[in-house]
Batch of 3 targets.
Target 1
Amino acid sequence: MDEFLKASIDEAETGASEGGIPIGSVIVHNGKIIGRGHNRRVQKGSAILHGEMDAFENAGRQPASVYRECTLYTTLSPCPMCTGAILLYGIKKVVIGENKTFMGEEELLRSRGVETIVLQNEQCISLMEKFISENPLLWNEDIGE
């Protein structure tokens, strides 16, 4: 398994161990993780701390030139908010663990020239299927279904 997808899964598992939603993300620049995060909506009572947003927050202020050279890894297909941040900061490549349990804005990413790779990783799928089946109200609170 790719080391950066593994780091994203580790973040997702950390989120689950904290009682949160198991979605993790890392931002990679020149082969090095510069930001990592996991969904902290539950832990922080936040409306916006999805895994990708937490990774951006933890990467801190970076010049646009750095973000344009980054790859973002995420365990789950990015929602509209996270897709907006990916586009805003000019990330050129996104590697997605899975989109079986939730299909985000992948077509928007592709339409804006972002290389978008979906792996359908079994560990990512399993983490989300288990969470959704055990926490449907919490899942639907954020997804709005």
Target 2
Amino acid sequence: MSRNAKIAAGGVAVGLILLIWLPWWAALLIVLGAPTAAYLMLDPSQRRRLRRVSRKEVGR
């Protein structure tokens, strides 16, 4: 299994565990809120650079 597949499988597992333990809206807030908060913490130059690169280059 590739590295990206392992990360995706782990994300799905965490999402399912959160759905079991928390109400659906709280799990959704955590799953969508964490990447959004990480993106908003970047400098404007880092955001521009992230938008400019392709998906394959982000993992490097």
Target 3
Amino acid sequence: MNTLNTLRFRRTALAVATAAVLPFALAACSDSGSGSGKDSAAGAAAAASAGASSPDADASAPMTSDGPFGAACAGVPKEGAGSFDGMAKDPVATAASNNPALSTLVAAVKQAGLVDTLNNAKDITVFAPTNDAFAKIPKADLDKVLADKATLTKILTYHVVGEKLTPKQLENGSFATLETGKVTTAGSGESYKVNGTSNVVCGNVPTANATVYIVDTVLMPK
């Protein structure tokens, strides 16, 4: 009887021990598999993150084409009010006054009394002739125009479009001007012409209220 009880006791103890050990073993296996899954998930997340960073970098690359372009842009000051950053903070007439290459245009704008008109306009495009562009006009003719406010105003407002134009829009465009005439544009990349004769030498320059395309020939309304 004692022997039988002893055997029963041993069997019961073995069963209890097995029942106690088995969950820990299963938990260990589960933790091991879970850890492996976490590692895999972490690796996948890292790979996804790395993969995602490449398109972001690629997407940021074309951003340079959204900024100013053209050979004459090299002559713009790197710092100060006349730099691209400085011009972006000022309205267009003020911004132009800080660019030495546009001093003749600025003088003409002042002569015509258009400083406030341009500075207070919203979302416009200005085709801004350089000093060299004005120098192509015989001095006697230029002096005559500068002395005639009505004619000067007509010419200057012909250089202003009532919307901000992107380089893409210039590829094949026709736009109404503040003077009520039209200018045509054509080109691609960093090469554009206005009215078929005036070259954009520094384009897509931002100011506080306008986009400026600096051109090498004064545009004449019909």
